[in-house]
Amino acid sequence: MGAAPLRALILSDIHANLEAFRAVIDDANNRGGFDVLWCLGDLVGYGPDPVACLKLVQSHSFLAVAGNHDHAAVGKMSVESFNYAAKAAAHWTTSQLPEDEVEFLSGLPLVANNDPFTMVHGSLRDPLEEYLLDADSAEASLKLLTSRFLLVGHSHLPFICLENKGTPQFVEFTEDAVLSLTEERWIINPGCVGQPRDRDPRSSYAIYDDQATTIERHRVAYDLESTQDKMREAQLPEYLIERLKLGI
Ligand code: ZN
């Protein structure tokens, strides 16, 4: 008996933005649906709905790794290196988490595998904090990679990095293109659900289809004003509220 067909919804940096997370799930369902959620960390931090977002992840079949904001929210990582706004949001998030969600976030692994994919928030060299955005960081992760593909988040920027005869080459992960996965090794960032930073405020995500052996990336607008209203109500920093509509 062969393995059942699998479609994975690949998400990173949900950041407690429930409107964005729901819009992504609806959009993915309109594009053929999915069997499993793969979450690349930073489920919480910045946004106004940490508990609802965690519940929504848990209501699906899922694989998730921890991000720096997840660890900060549960006290597993110092917020010393965070800027003022991120620090304030981390403290607020901590105040919202019941004990069972603290345990859930604390228990997330740094690296997860579902062959041929490995998942990590930052990089394999530094799972929580390194931004994988240049040839040096890509090369270091490819050295440590034991599967064909590496999924990363953290920078909130979508891209594909191909291992071109041993040399990492960054290329655009074009919106709505359906890409066939080749024998080459790839590092893939699906972009960000809850706080996009490529000057496009729409949420970004990817879908992997193991029957077609394809991966595709899509964007979807969400009810950003509702998220901003909730953030004001929670007295989260104005900078975090404003940046959502700028996509920065
Ligand atoms: Zn993040």
Secondary-structure topology with pairs:
Layout: E1 7-11, H1 18-30, E2 36-39, H2 50-58, E3 62-64, H3 68-73, H4 84-96, H5 99-106, E4 111-114, E5 117-120, H6 135-144, E6 149-151, E7 159-164, E8 167-171, E9 178-180, E10 186-189, E11 203-209, E12 214-220, H7 224-233, H8 238-246
Parallel strand pairs: 1-2, 2-3, 5-6, 6-10
Antiparallel strand pairs: 1-11, 4-5, 7-8, 7-10, 9-12, 11-12
Bound molecules: zinc ion (ZN).
Structure overview:
This protein has 248 residues and is of the alpha/beta class. The protein contains 8 helices and 12 strands. The chain has helices at residues 18-30, 50-58, 68-73, 84-96, 99-106, 135-144, 224-233, 238-246; strands at 7-11, 36-39, 62-64, 111-114, 117-120, 149-151, 159-164, 167-171, 178-180, 186-189, 203-209, 214-220. The protein has a 6-stranded mixed sheet with strand order 3-2-1-11-12-9. Strand 2 (36-39), helix 2 (50-58) and strand 3 form a beta-alpha-beta unit. It is globular and about 50 Å long. The model has no long low-confidence stretch (mean pLDDT 96).
Summary, kept brief:
This protein is an alpha/beta fold. It contains eight helices and twelve strands.
Search tags:
6-stranded mixed sheet, binds zinc ion, alpha/beta, 248 residues, 12 strands, 8 helices
General form: globular
SSE order in H/E notation? EHEHEHHHEEHEEEEEEEHH
User: Whole-number radius of gyration?
Assistant: 17 Å
What's the average pLDDT?
96
Q: What small-molecule ligands were found?
A: zinc ion
Span between N and C termini? 47 Å
Question: Largest sheet, if any?
Answer: 6 strands, mixed
Strand content: 15-25%
Which stretches are poorly predicted, pLDDT < 50 over at least 5 residues?
Answer: none
